[in-house]
Design brief:
globular, alpha/beta, homodimer, Rossmann fold, 11 strands, seven-stranded mixed β-sheet
């Protein structure tokens, strides 16, 4: 598969600016050939304001940003895009993304690229046609993955428990917990963990495993 | 409406046993006439183990527990139930609950009784027929409501922000954030906040408001 994906856990890291913690990876991912990035801000009410935030950041990195909501024909805009960035839970039909156009996602925009959106942290606000996602990779991601806080008195379920409950369903895919600060780079059949934090991999029926930045996670692609 | 509901934020409070923090309210809610409580453990894989936990606790309070999964005809079991307790996100058809049978919910079982399940904290694992819930009350609840932690470096969205995003959708109902330790008692057209913690009420387009235990929230029922 001629896929190129940069799947980021979070858009903003504590103490830094918008997309600052991954800006070098963005530059090398989109490279010099990409001039314009199509931004999909459908999931937020104030699309113009959110597009401006992305536009300002990408401009500083040397890329123009087009908001899909500004296009006369949004489907055509996706088909013609040199590159795509989705930061929220917008589901755009899979066929539009299957041709090697670089796809960058962050947060729920990362869920969209995976097998299903079932491991999002968002509340299920808008009823989607299904929980299936684009399927550019055959596993799920949990962005903003959060370790249990040993000092917390809160009895809400931990993220690990929720993922374990997801895996009680038969034939559910593996879930990569991407902590804030980490991201996954996928190029064809090669997947590499980037960033500054470990990721935690949950495979159904097995004990969770930690991976350090730089780890080769290509085995997750051969499902 | 001849409804009787006890909608609890959480089954276990830090430092206490299962349902311990609300046991007095359970006793006065079900009272002396109820002998058997129908327990709905569908959402969890190990239904027998979970039913045993509930059975042991309710037995100590003087009630027998029947697991709905043990019934030959589950629909009939709901129709004949003297009282119902749902602790997880099981959606049982609304008509079965409209006749004044006392309904106790906790956590996602509380979401089930409200207008919609959109303000659950659970991951959207099983694709439901819709996000509509039983609608025994015309508003939503967010159980395990959690205040932002000022010391956290985590950039995931706060609960308040998620509820605000929910209210970006038109005509979405009010959301009562039930902190751990709090519960709502509904009898007919009267709703009272019980427990040991404040609740936080989010009305679309308005500033959130705090309510103390003992507050009369009946105005939420007249929507």
């Amino acid at each position: 598969m001629n896929r190129r994906l940069l799947l980021v856990s979070n858009s903003t890291l504590h103490g830094g600016g918008y997309l600052e913690h991954c800006q070098q990876h963005i530059s090398s991912f989109f490279g010099k050939n990409v001039k314009r990035v199509l931004f999909v801000p459908y999931a937020l009410h104030d699309r113009d304001a959110y597009t401006k935030t992305a536009r300002d950041k990408f401009k500083a990195l040397g890329y123009e940003v087009d908001g899909i909501h500004e296009a006369a024909d949004p489907v055509d805009a996706v088909r013609r895009a040199e590159a795509v960035f989705i930061a929220l839970g917008d589901v755009t039909p899979a066929p539009l993304f299957q041709d090697g156009v670089p796809y960058m996602g962050s947060s729920a925009g990362t869920n969209v690229a995976t097998a299903s959106i079932s491991t999002t942290n968002d509340m299920p606000i808008v009823y989607p046609p299904s929980f299936a996602a684009i399927g550019l990779v055959p596993f799920n991601i949990n962005p903003h993955y959060l370790d249990p806080d040993p000092n917390s008195r809160h009895m809400g379920e931990t993220r690990e428990l929720r993922i374990t409950q997801y895996h009680e369903e038969p034939e559910t895919p593996s879930v990569l917990g991407l902590r804030e600060g980490s991201m996954l780079l996928v190029e064809g059949n090669k997947a590499t963990l980037l960033g500054t934090t470990n990721a935690r991999l949950f495979i159904r029926g097995k004990k969770a495993v930690e991976y350090e930045p730089g780890s080769d996670l290509s085995f997750l692609l051969t499902d």
